[in-house]
Amino acid sequence: MKTRSVVSAIVFFVVVAATALTAQESVSVSADLALTPPMGWNSWNKFACNVSEDLIKGMADAVVKSGMKDAGYVYVNVDDCWQVSRDANGNIVADPQRFPHGMKAVGDYIHSRGLKLGVYSDAGSKTCAGRPGGLGHEYQDALMYASWGVDYLKYDWCNATTQDAKASYANMRAALDASGRPIVLSICEWGTAKPWLWGADVGGNLWRTTGDIQDRWADKREWRPGICCNNGVLAILDQEADLYSYAGPGHWNDPDMLEVGNGGMSDTEYRSHFSLWAMLAAPLIAGNDLRNMRPETHDILTNKEVINIDQDALGRQGERVARNGDLEVWAKQLKDGSRAVVLLNRGSGEQEITATWEDIGYPNTVSASVRDLWQHKDVGKFTGKYSARVGSHGVVMVTVKP
Ligand code: GLA
Description:
Elements: H1 2-25, E1 39-42, H2 44-47, H3 53-65, H4 68-71, E2 75-77, E3 83-86, E4 92-94, H5 102-112, E5 116-122, H6 138-148, E6 150-156, H7 165-178, E7 184-187, E8 206-208, E9 220-221, E10 230-231, H8 233-240, E11 252-254, H9 267-279, E12 284-286, H10 295-301, H11 304-310, E13 319-324, E14 327-333, E15 339-345, E16 351-356, H12 357-360, E17 367-372, E18 377-383, E19 385-390, E20 395-401
Bound molecules: alpha-D-galactopyranose.
Alpha-D-galactopyranose is lined by residues 44, 79-80, 120, 127-129, 156, 188, 212.
């Protein structure tokens, strides 16, 4: 009797221990990535194919020196055109002229500055710029990336012909995880196959919701006749407005990288662009030259009060809660129960815009403290509503705390 119960006790403990081990093993290395929207810099918007080791190292230095790192920017992402071919064994080869010491050296440098390395590839046979894509080399590429210390992969969708998007990205996530290195997966499928419906299921940490951003305020425009489309800030905003329920810790809608500081918009418009991206809980990936920023650009990109809204731990994407012609009110619930609110004026003249408490989710009888996140000042206590005059293409961005 006694022996039997000792044996059953041993069997019981072995089973419990084995179950615990299996459970642990099944937790993927990428489980805790991007719990808040990723922040960093990417080469494409400003430099396109003109990337090199010197450029990327210089930008890593600038992230640190400019205070961007202290503000939360951590990824330094090399977009298209770092790769030129595959060797006889199928290994991806970095451009030897532009990256003479190879990608691991770039990764080591970035890591030595306390930052993280991102690279770009494509789920199809070729990248959008015609460089070798990842198709058929997913596991091989993932191992190579891990050996370089890659922390973030942007995976594009050019030349994917009849591939299934969900299956293609699931395959790449499995390959990245099999490398044993936690790597953020940025799905760049432009919204065609509605990645918000499956992106999180396949382990994507963010997914582009639209075609590319261009450095302008409004409008969706064809690249060439019949080839749709690139987007101004407002065009992207409108395409993302209804997707708020799909965003959350670890998995974000991506309205594309920032154009702040690239010269096509006014500082007012860049302030709106940055504020709206924070309201959308968007990845904040700067796309300008950080080595020689104007003070106005620097102050937009490093506005910690606005960044805090983007990075709020609750991970809600803001919603458009009221709209009257060109005038809009956006609200985002924050972890402490307060709200971030943006009053947006899309029109051509200054206008007064009002956010009512009812619109932003409070009873109208509540008294709440309002703080202006661009003026960096408490503006007082208000009951039922807050109104402000907002310039053309501008925003007023506040927190409302009952
Ligand atoms: C696509 C992507 C862009 C950029 C380019 C690179 O257009 O959407 O963000 O990565 O490819 O060729």
